[in-house]
Amino acid sequence: MDDVRTHGAVGDGRTLDHAAFQRAINQCSVRGGGIVVVPPGRYRCGSIKLKGGVHLHIQAGAEIFGSPDEADYECVVPSCHGVFPTTTRALFHADEEDDIAITGYGSIHGGGDSPMPGPLYLATCFRPAVFLLRGCCRVRIADLTIKDSRYWTIHLLRCCDVRVRGITISNHRQRISSVGLVADSSRDVLVSDCVIESGDDAVAVKSTVDLPCSNIAVTNCILRSSQAALKIGAQSVGTISNVLFSNCIIEGSHVGIGVYMKDGGLFENLSFIDLVISADSEFPITIDATARRHARDTDPGHMRDLRFSGLTVHGRGRCYVQGHPLAPIERLTMRDVVWTVHGYCDGPKAVKNRGSEHVDPQPGGVDLAAEPWHFVFAHIAGLRMADISCHLAVPLQRHDRGLLLLDHVSDAAFADLRGLPTPPGLPAVEVRGCSDLHGLSSALRTGAAVVSGLESGLMHAAVRGA
User: Fold this and answer.
1) Which of 218, 380, 365 is nearest to 287 (CA)?
2) Which CATH number fits domain 1-200: 2.160.20.10, 3.30.160.70, 3.40.190.10, 2.60.40.420?
3) Partner of 465 at 20 to 30 A CA spacing, among 50, 107, 221, 324?
4) What one-character-per-residue DSSP string does 214-276 give?
């Protein structure tokens, strides 16, 4: 066992200690691996390179502070790539190292304790991550508290067999790009029992390099985000598959669930199970498979097999799901959803969520965000909705939405849907260019239930566009 103090670390909050940390890690690695202990103290550090077989244990009372001086950080990515800054740096980093562990009840402070609005973000190149691990396998991160990351807090790029458990991430809510955790072109990643608060996405699943991202599970977490609490895609060129978000509480977020396919590829087997969501945006659940503007003439990609079950949603907003006209979303199931509406939607001023500043808000298609229905579904092949209930948290002076808009939806079945009272003259359901719809029966009345039935015909009294 090595102690960073025996290698020269001072821990007074002023002395640069990362060289001592590195000596301890290097010596431990040369001996074949083991534990490096960080005892209580205040350690000011620049870049620290983690090594395979070394377990860095940060004890309770130990605080590691990221240096504010760019010169103290090693250049990890020397040129602009994807969504990275021009030069990427990190407090802790590793390349192609296996059997890495960072644990303990101590804390890591990234230094991003002030707001970073858009113009400042674009003008600031020095934004080091806290952890950037590339091509690493068998990674364990547990029990730490991480505060005020300047950039992505934990970035797992091309990693496999990763366990992140019991950590707390607390980033400045007004700091752009302070993402909590990113599983990027990685596989076999389990994130559990964490509390994550961020000024950007709380947990993001991406494939920024053309490698698959698969077998990602996020469970038993509490998430707060100024953007999306749970996000898939936006900057993704590879396949994303077998993703499970379950048993999480989302509160104080802008978007609860965001799935954005903007660069083609394949998204499949995405499950969102037993989530409690409180979000303030117009569309706290957004699924968008339309391409970027500059990619309209390329392969639109494919999104299929999405499952939403056991959702409890609070907020004024609605649900937006849009596939690509040339590649509809295939097989989407939504069941057992209770949606409590707390206020009015944006109405004619509504626009769909972009996903990120890198994504065109509406690349050449039709934006259905201003349509006055609670569930907006477009370009879907294979839709199942059952046991869906919408109700008001408090009485409103006017009604602002119908229940369901179906635009170019095929092979759809509905059972036991209940919407809010609709405005005068607005049908509960609007149907445009659809085929093979089942379960919209004569039991449908404005503001009442859609009851499962064998009928495939749509009753004009309740459904417009049949």
Assistant:
1) 380
2) 2.160.20.10
3) 324
4) EEEEEES-EEEESSEEEEEEEEE-S-EEEEEEEEEEEEEESEEEEEE--S-SEEEEEEEEEEE
**Tens of pLDDT, residues 38-68:** 999 999 999 999 999 999 999 999 999 999 9
Burial class of residue 118 (count of CB atoms within 10 Å of its CB; 0-12, 13-18, 19+): exposed
Hey, where are the domains in the chain? Answer: 1-200, 236-248+263-466
Confidence bin at 265 (pLDDT 50/70/90): confident
Q: Which residues contact 37 (CB under 8 A, 6 or more apart)?
A: 1, 2, 3, 4, 57, 59
* Token pair for 260: 């954005």
Query: At 73, is the secondary structure helix, strand, or coil?
Result: coil
Q: What's the pLDDT tens digit per position in 306-357?
A: 999 999 999 999 999 999 988 999 999 999 999 999 999 998 898 888 776 6
pLDDT band at 453; cut points 50, 70, 90: very low
Question: What contacts 119, CB < 8 A, 6 or more positions away?
Answer: none
Q: What is the pTM (predicted TM-score) of this model? A: 0.91
150: DSSP letter = S
Q: Taking Cα atoms as reference points, which of 375, 275, 402, 391 lies closest to residue 342?
A: 391
333: tokens are: 């199931």
